[in-house]
Amino acid sequence: MSPRSASHTAIVPFNDLQALERTLAAGDVALVLTEPVLTNCNLVMPDPDFHRGVRELTHRYGALLCIDEAHTFQFAFGGLVNAWRMTPDFIVLGKGSGAGWLSGSTE
């Protein structure tokens, strides 16, 4: 990441809706990117209303919401976005699909 990109990035603690609202209230956030469950530091589960709150805040302040399911899409059919009925504007998949998809006969 270039220093220029970093200067346009805000990092907000997971599960902290108050910090997210303070950040979004500035009116200069285009996209919120989060994971359903944090996975690079063991598993950190979201508070019960965290994702609903994130969705409400992004709507209120006009930001898009992207859920990064690169690690969690295999936790449930359709990923946690489907299992938890989340409604992001975008979903990141990636790593697990890097080996390709099997469709039809293998003969």
How is this structure best described in words?
- Strand 1, helix 3 and strand 2 form a beta-alpha-beta unit.
- It is built from four helices and three strands.
- With 107 residues, it is of the alpha/beta class.
- The longest helix has 12 residues.
- The protein is globular, with a radius of gyration of 16 Å.
- Strands 1-2-3 form a three-stranded parallel sheet, with helices on one face.
- The model has no long low-confidence stretch (mean pLDDT 87).
Topology of this protein?
Blueprint: H1 3-6, H2 17-25, E1 31-34, H3 50-61, E2 64-68, H4 79-83, E3 90-92
Parallel strand pairs: 1-2, 2-3
Helix pairs in contact: 2-3
Q: Briefly, what is this?
A:
By secondary structure, the protein is an alpha/beta fold. It has four helices and three strands, in the order ααβαβαβ. β1, α3 (50-61) and β2 (64-68) form a beta-alpha-beta unit.
